[in-house]
Write a structure and sequence with these properties.
81 residues; globular; single chain; mainly beta; two-stranded antiparallel sheet
């Protein structure tokens, strides 16, 4: 499961930014840090929602896993219940 994990990208990777119902490709540069916010929801769902520089984007899960290096010492902040 990728949700809540942070990664540093080893290679520049494309993501999708959806604004007003239109998708726009965004290149996230090598060395950037992303955090997975949600997804994939099922085995057949290939997209995850990520946070990069304050922007919420969609990426292929395989790109996160294949090009990302997990930041293992990251502690996710507690949620207020």
């Amino acid at each position: 499961m990728l949700k809540g994990k942070r990664f540093t990208l080893g290679k520049s990777t494309l993501a999708l930014d959806v604004l007003d119902g239109k998708s726009k490709a965004v290149a996230i540069p090598a060395g950037a840090t992303i955090q997975v916010l949600a997804g994939p929801r099922s085995v057949s769902d290939r997209m995850v929602e990520v946070l990069w520089e304050g922007r919420t984007l969609q990426m292929f899960a395989i790109d996160v896993e294949g090009r990302g290096i997990e930041i293992s010492d990251y502690q996710q902040p507690p949620t207020a219940d």
